[in-house]
Amino acid sequence: RRLLLVNGPNLNLLGTREPGIYGSDTLADVERLVTDAAAARGFEVRAMQSNHEGVIVDAIHAAREDCAGIVINPAGLSHTSVVLRDALAAVALPVAEIHISDVMQRESFRHHSYVTDVAVVHVIGEGVPGYARAVDLLVDVITGQAE
Ligand code: DQA
């Protein structure tokens, strides 16, 4: 069993990007954390990051073939992308939406996410460790321990 991990635009710069907001962990650290958290629950992870919306849409479509769920930090696309939302709704896999920062405490344009109501798990503002909690909560949903 496998999870798809998607990190959206600019998250390749984690660790150097606005460290006061996003911390000093890198994307590689995030991918390792998620891989370890998933392994502890018996899941493999396919990790991808892209700055290109269409590449992310293609990865979400491909997840239909071999993934049981999707952990996604949609980054700025959260606040702009009907396309991303439609892709997630189309594949009908359980989705965990994660944001490192507390978007509700930031600019008002970050308060709305198009992804929120197609996701079953939401982890917001818990920093990078939030990715591990998102994995746990999503696996609970997949394995029927919660909903
Ligand atoms: C983010 C929050 C978004 O508003 C922002 O555009 C990001 C990262 C977060 O993880 O806190 O790129 O998704």
From TrEMBL:
Subunit (UniProt): Homododecamer.
Family assignment from sequence similarity: Belongs to the type-II 3-dehydroquinase family.
Domain of life: Bacteria
Pfam families cross-referenced by the UniProt entry: DHquinase_II
Catalysed reactions listed for this entry: 3-dehydroquinate = 3-dehydroshikimate + H2O
Top-level EC class as recorded in UniProt: lyase
Official protein name in the record: 3-dehydroquinate dehydratase
Sites marked Transition state stabilizer: R17
The protein's Enzyme Commission number: 4.2.1.10
Gene name linked to the record: aroQ
UniProt keyword terms in alphabetical order: Amino-acid biosynthesis, Aromatic amino acid biosynthesis, Lyase
PANTHER family per UniProt: CATABOLIC 3-DEHYDROQUINASE
HAMAP family for the chain: AroQ
Recorded metabolic or biological pathway in which this protein acts: Metabolic intermediate biosynthesis; chorismate biosynthesis; chorismate from D-erythrose 4-phosphate and phosphoenolpyruvate: step 3/7
Enzyme active site: Y22 (proton acceptor), H99 (proton donor)
InterPro entries (alphabetical): DHquinase_II, DHquinase_II_CS, DHquinase_II_sf
The keyword Cytoplasm appears for this protein: no
Function: Catalyzes a trans-dehydration via an enolate intermediate.
Residues the record lists as binding substrate: N73, H79, D86, I100, S101, R110
